[in-house]
Amino acid sequence: MLLKDIQTIFHNELDTENGANEVNSFFNILIKHYLSLNRITLVLEPNLTLTKKEEEPLFEALTRLKNKEPIQYIVGETEFYGLQFKVNEHTLIPRPETEELVEEIINTIILGGEIKPLKILDIGTGTGCIAISLAKTLKNAEVIAMDVSEEALKIAKENARLNDVNITCIQDNILNPNNSLAEIEFKFDVIVSNPPYVREVEKLEIKDNVLKHEPHLALFVPDDDPLKFYKAITAFAVDNLNDEGYLFFEINQYLGGEMKQLLADFNFKNIKVIKDVFGNDRITKALKP
Ligand code: GLN
After folding, report:
1. Ligand 1 atom nearest to CA at 197
2. Fewer CB within 10 Å of terminal CB in the chain, N or C?
């Protein structure tokens, strides 16, 4: 079949749900991933014909896209902070807002002069996107990435290897730490986390591609205690940050005020709530008490 005819089928099947631009983007990602074809091929070689075998993964992907599966899970990878990351159903897909968090941490550290080798802990690392981008950029840093999910840690380790950085991965649950965290004998200069923060009441706002396919373990918190991870991590940070150490969070956009209060209750200093590019409260930055 002609490549451009397959593209037309994609538009016919998916445009109503996704819009033509997004469908073009899906198609370009798929032909690059499965056939190493550049999007420009569609223009330059209008008569390019695929064999049955070449068509197969495209039609399999179409079925999965119709089932609202994110394109990143279909191809098994995505880009974050200029790096490639493997993703699967055990990990959230890294978000652009989280790139802003990484940028904020890097700017803070670089402006601070980065005098000594920093020790950084990322709690709830998922794909490892935060830990690995920090390790890649801050060559002096020693980065520890923790997650409750063994499956997520497998992906984080693979991503560290693919991006050629050394990070230490540990399995633990910040709500109920076992020995792994306690065994760490030093304190940290930076603790960062993008923990689950979406309330059950907000499920209505969440699109099907997220709701049906991304791990709920990494997304949702109960309505009656939406900051439970933040409380546990902040308490941990009080004991495990060095003096002048920073605590960074990605936060629920509706809970900026509550987060500020929480950090103030634990006596953190210089508390800042920072907005993302969409103008939503998204990041907090605070200095150890
Ligand atoms: N920002 C993610 C979303 O909108 C949620 C990430 C999280 O819960 N930490 O789905």
Report:
1. 8
2. C
